[in-house]
Amino acid sequence: MALTSLPQDRQRQLKFQHMTHMCRICIEAVIQLAKRLHHFSQLSQQDQICLVKPACIEVLMINSAQYFDVHTDRLMMATGFWTTQEQLEDGLLKYGFGNQMWQFVRNLAMCHLHDVEFALLTALCILSSGQSTNAFPPQNMCKLN
């Protein structure tokens, strides 16, 4: 059965379930990435959680930038599914911050960073996560217009 043939409420529910499933997969990947940081595994579990938990959204957005197509303004999800800003907001981010997140990911993708630069930015985000609740606001991104 095609998604569009379902009632709109059911479509939203399925989109939300898909997005939350993708977020769970991504959060697990963030945790695995953090465990590969030098000496991270030597920290207590509570200290590891204190570093990873506040950085999770920022790290997810940094990683998303690697899968963002600036030419089509679409983001590839972990399953290979391409999504637009409108689909993402309709499925999960309809609480007022979806546009800021999308702009952050788009602007970071436009910086054309290499894998090593993404890894360093991610490590910096995790290791400085206790410093601020908004470590990388979108207005501080490089702008390539």
Q: Topology of this structure?
A:
Blueprint: H1 8-35, H2 45-65, E1 68-69, E2 74-76, E3 82-83, H3 85-91, H4 98-109, H5 115-127
Antiparallel strand pairs: 1-2, 2-3
Helix pairs in contact: 1-2, 1-3, 2-4, 2-5
Features:
145 residues; mainly alpha; Retinoid X Receptor; three-stranded antiparallel beta sheet; 3 strands; disordered C terminus
Structural class label: mainly alpha
Question: What is the annotated CATH architecture?
Answer: Orthogonal Bundle
CATH H level, superfamily name: Retinoid X Receptor
The average pLDDT is 77
Number of domains: 1
Give the helices and strands as they follow along the chain: HHEEEHHH
- Helicity, in percent? 55-70%
Rg for CA atoms: 16 Å
In CATH, what is the class?
Mainly Alpha
Shape: globular
Termini separation: 42 Å
Largest sheet: 3 strands, antiparallel
* Number of distinct helices: 5
Number-wise, the strands total 3
Question: Going across the major beta sheet, what is the strand order?
Answer: 1-2-3
CATH topology: Retinoid X Receptor
